[in-house]
């Protein structure tokens, strides 16, 4: 113990004191959680790499909204890697970690999830600005997009480092939480409230977009027989429902557990559901590419070309394909991607 702090204590000291006892032997539930977690991590990593490659190689995706989608994929990719690291440092392996290694494990997760949520919020704001100004593409310059993306990662990194920088319980054992034995209870409450606030902001933004587009569609339908506006409203409603629904399903259980733990609820049995909520929260990084990318027909076509290219390379090593080739002139003549009309 250094002064009034317990910096030199082992991980077991904090876990035993908080009541989060970890078995020295691998149990069935440990194998189930780790196996499920590893499977989700691998799928998340591959899916988001595919999204990033598609956006990078197809010129039709070189617009602010797709740059943000690419950054979202990067954040979710980082989340997959962070959880992969966690899966190899959890269960009985946890007790072998040093205090610094434990904070690193948690900081990676906090950083990746903050970046993912911040990207979702940035995309919502970008769509709000674009639709209310009746534009197909945002007028943001590349410089502003880079600054926005940099700001997202700076915020995410800072939030990930906050506990290690001092918002922990190493110097006040009475404030230690149960789910994260070296995190302060007040930090868990702050983390849960911050994410819930972000969720409500997103809900408000997309609800306002939906009401505006529906009103605009009704006014235009009085002067034209075209049905594209109505189809846009339907697509928008589906997209908004998917975004909010998946966000609630993936995040609410874990946020509620964090809130209950931070408030010191002794009868809530937070440890019983912790690992499953953790895997469920990670699934949000898998759902994001599906919602924001797989609904785009052009993106799907790009995915198929990339995968077909990889298959051809695997079947014929003598093929001299240098990468994915796109008939960009032909694609430009087809007009803008339909995805932008559905979100």
Features:
343 residues; transmembrane; G-protein coupled receptors family 1 profile domain-containing protein; cell membrane; endosome
Structural notes for this entry:
With 343 residues, the chain is an all-alpha fold. The protein is built from ten helices and no strands. It is globular.
CA distance, first residue to last residue: 55 Å
Which percent range fits the helix content?
55-70%
Major sheet summary line:
none
Which percent range describes the beta-strand content?
A: under 5%
Question: Taking Cα atoms only, what radius of gyration do you get, to the nearest Å?
Answer: 23 Å
Oligomeric composition of the shown chains: single chain
Number of helical stretches of at least 4 residues: 10
Counted beta strands: 0
In terms of structural class, how would the helical and strand content be classed? mainly alpha
Topology pattern, helix = H, strand = E? HHHHHHHHHH
* Global morphology: globular
Instruction: Indicate the low-confidence ranges by residue numbers.
Output: 318-343
What is the mean predicted local confidence, pLDDT?
79
Summary?
This is G-protein coupled receptors family 1 profile domain-containing protein. With 343 residues, the chain is mostly helical. It is built from ten helices and no strands.
Chart the SSEs and their pairings.
Layout: H1 11-18, H2 28-57, H3 64-87, H4 99-132, H5 142-165, H6 185-221, H7 228-262, H8 270-292, H9 297-315, H10 328-333
Helix pairs in contact: 2-3, 2-8, 2-9, 3-4, 3-8, 4-5, 4-6, 6-7, 7-8
């Amino acid at each position: 113990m250094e002064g009034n702090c317990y910096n030199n204590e082992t991980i077991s000291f904090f876990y035993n004191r908080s009541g989060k006892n970890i078995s020295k032997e691998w149990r069935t539930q440990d194998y189930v959680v780790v196996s499920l977690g590893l499977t989700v991590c691998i799928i998340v990593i591959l899916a988001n790499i595919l999204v990033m490659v598609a956006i990078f190689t197809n010129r039709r995706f070189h617009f602010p909204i797709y740059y943000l989608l690419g950054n979202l994929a990067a954040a979710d990719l980082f989340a997959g890697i962070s959880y992969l690291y966690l899966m190899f440092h959890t269960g009985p392996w946890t007790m072998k970690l040093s205090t610094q290694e434990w904070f690193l494990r948690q900081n990676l997760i906090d950083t990746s999830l903050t970046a993912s949520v911040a990207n979702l919020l940035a995309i919502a704001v970008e769509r709000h600005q674009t639709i209310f100004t009746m534009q197909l593409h945002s007028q943001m310059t590349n410089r502003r997009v880079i600054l926005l993306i940099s700001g997202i990662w700076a915020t995410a990194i800072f939030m990930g480092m906050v506990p290690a920088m001092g918002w922990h319980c190493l110097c006040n054992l009475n404030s230690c939480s149960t789910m994260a034995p070296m995190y302060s209870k007040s930090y868990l409450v702050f983390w849960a409230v911050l994410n819930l606030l972000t969720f409500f902001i997103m809900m408000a933004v997309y609800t306002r977009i939906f009401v505006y587009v529906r009103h605009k569609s009704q006014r235009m339908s009085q002067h034209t027989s075209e049905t594209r506006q109505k189809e846009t409203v339907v697509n928008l409603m589906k997209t908004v429902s998917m975004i909010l629904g998946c966000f609630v399903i993936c995040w609410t259980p874990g946020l509620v557990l964090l809130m209950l733990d931070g408030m010191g609820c002794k009868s809530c049995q937070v440890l019983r559901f912790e690992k499953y909520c953790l895997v469920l929260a990670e699934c949000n990084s898998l759902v994001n590419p599906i919602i924001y990318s797989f609904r785009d027909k052009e993106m799907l076509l790009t995915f198929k070309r990339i995968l077909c290219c990889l298959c051809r390379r695997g079947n014929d090593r003598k093929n001299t394909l240098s990468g994915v080739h796109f008939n960009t002139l032909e694609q430009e003549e087809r007009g803008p991607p339909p995805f932008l009309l559905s979100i």
